[in-house]
Design brief:
This protein is mainly α. Helices cover 77% and strands 0% of the residues. The protein has helices at 2-57, 66-77, 82-87. It is rod-shaped, with a radius of gyration of 28 Å. The chain starts with a helix and ends in a 9-residue tail after the last helix.
């Protein structure tokens, strides 16, 4: 009978540990989702701020399509001195 109690106790302990593991895994998923949401919000905010800067500097920008803005920026990047200016900027992803 003692062996039966020990086996039952071990089974209960195992179930308790498995339940704890599931709870921790769920908590991890929640935290990962929260982190992804915060990263997405930060990226969205950064893109909006940079778009506002672009529109403020180039008043025609709001009337241009995305492809036209891209072509305009590419043309700017080919102007003399542009390569040197961009070489001194921090790489994308290093700063918000």
């Amino acid at each position: 009978m003692n062996e039966k109690n020990t086996a039952q106790t071990q089974k209960e302990e195992r179930e308790k540990v498995l339940k704890e593991i599931r709870q921790l895994e769920n908590r991890q998923k929640i935290l990962e989702n929260k982190q992804r949401n915060e990263e997405r919000k930060a990226r969205t905010r950064r893109l909006i701020e940079r778009g506002a800067i672009l529109e403020g500097i180039f008043p025609l920008a709001p009337n241009l399509s995305g492809a036209e803005v891209k072509a305009f920026l590419i043309a700017l990047s080919h102007l003399p001195g542009a390569v040197e200016l961009t070489a001194n900027l921090p790489k994308s992803g290093n700063t918000p």
